[in-house]
């Protein structure tokens, strides 16, 4: 039995965000326009992808981004709502390929593919020496 047996082609999720000044390329790169940045669009596509499959993963596992092939087709100004959509296109071994899109109202502003891999959190943290920072309160 594969840990991805419950993940099936066609599963989908959306991430809706209102573009803020902090999400713009102009916020990060002085002199650039204050429009929704490509890295933010990709982040929201990745978040939608993870949400589509999270409830169907084994308890000790999460999915992590592995590859992105995305086109950013149109600019979106601050204040507009972007809808990022992800659909499972293929399940291959321990990875899942998603078809992703982003929309500003009825206008497609991005599309492409995104691949996520399955990892066991404890094994991943041990392998890469990840430690959880302790939070102290006064």
The total of helices stands at 3
> How much helix, percentage-wise, in residues?
10-25%
Provide the gyration radius in Å. Answer: 17 Å
Largest sheet: 5 strands, antiparallel
Distance between the termini: 48 Å
* Envelope shape: globular
Query: What structural category do the secondary elements indicate?
Result: alpha+beta
Main-sheet strand order equals: 1-3-4-5-2
* Low-confidence region ranges: none
β-sheet strand percentage: 35-45%
Q: How many β-strand runs?
A: 5
Helices and strands, in order, run as: EHHEEEEH
The overall pLDDT, averaged over residues, is 94
Structure description:
With 138 residues, this protein is of the alpha+beta class. Helix content is 20%, strand content 40%. It is built from 3 helices and 5 strands. Strands 1-3-4-5-2 form a 5-stranded antiparallel beta sheet. Strand 4 and strand 5 form a beta hairpin. The longest helix is centred in the N-terminal third of the chain and has 16 residues. The protein is globular.
Layout of SSEs?
Layout lengths: L11 E7 L6 H4 L9 H16 L7 E12 L8 E12 L2 E10 L2 E14 H8 L10
Antiparallel strand pairs: 1-3, 2-5, 3-4, 4-5
What are the salient characteristics of this protein?
138 residues, alpha+beta, 5-stranded antiparallel β-sheet
Care to give the gist of this entry?
This protein is an alpha+beta fold and 138 residues long. 20% of the residues lie in helices and 40% in strands. The mean pLDDT is 94.
